[in-house]
Design goal:
alpha+beta, five-stranded antiparallel sheet, 17 strands
Length: 393
Amino acid sequence: MLRFSTAGESHGECLIAMVSGMPAGVPIDEAKMNRELWRRQQGYGRGGRMRIERDTAQILSGVRHGKTIGSPIAIRIENNDWKNWTESLPVVAGDPTKHKAVASPRPGHADLAGALKYDFPDARYVLERASARESTARVAAGAVAKQLLAELGINIASHVIRVGSAELDRVAEWSEIEALLHREEVLLGCVDEMAEQRMKAVVDQALRTGDSVGGVFEVVAHGVPPGLGTYANWDERLDGLLAFAVMSLQAVKAVEIGRGVTAAAAFGSVVHDSIHYAQEQEADRHTRFARDQNNAGGIEGGISNGEDVIVRGYLKPISTLRRPLGSVSFSTREEVKAAYERSDVCVVPAAGVAAEAMVALTLAKLAIEKFGGDSMREMVRNYQGYCEQIRRF
């Protein structure tokens, strides 16, 4: 079974990603992993922290001569900002006067709930772990999963479809979304230049007013075969697993599969994707069964159906504002302004990259469970046999 976990704090020495359950023989390109980490740091509206960090991965175990060896993979990402926090966040008992308290909780953040839960006198330790900096380690783990999926012809990319009130008003093609992976300059991760400029104007407004802004990203998994997930048990449905994975990301408050939101207001005759049977096998399809549209987002009955798997995440605005909202002092209980920590204004493109990682880890887990194999060669052989079976159906 594929499992992953992360460790580390926002201003700690480093972040750690642990991945276990990968078959042996998966090619792992460290440069591709670092590219994913770079993509997560990009986007208009990012804060000062991204000018400090230059995220790069150091694989400590589980990979030798460029391939997985079947044992757990440990990945380390150094925090460059740690040098500014060594006295404030020591592992051993240090000077308590050097502690940098988060003295008043920020509305929308985990500060207050976390301080109450763990009996902290302020929210410093809550911030350190609840911060979206943790998603860096997820992206590293997701890069491993992406490289396994690529061996099966499955590729994953994301794009931004809304920032605040500015929205992409057309359907993006897979080729356009995939092309974003290769951009050397990332503005807001939208496939349409005019829509991206409208999004930039919204971020500019937030910058001027000391505010923050959220939006919507879309993750597309291309080349997914029919048959991942199941309707047999409630906790094994693909759509449920993907919703859980993407919702677990910091600041994501809603998840949509396909056109789930607009489908709720439409008639079934418009929503459901008509099925046809092609006379010839199309080169990029697993079966001759196809659909004229993909409102279902590639999932029916909790199972992938052979179309692109489409997941949208709805991201709330960042909780830390340069013009803070009202709060309460932890020490005096008096009304004050919420604490301010160096932060971003808009992180929708970065959240899309983190969501790609979560989608990749989910699909890789299900692929390993379905096709099995202790080595990549065995898994590919099993996968090819399954593809031949459904191709003849």
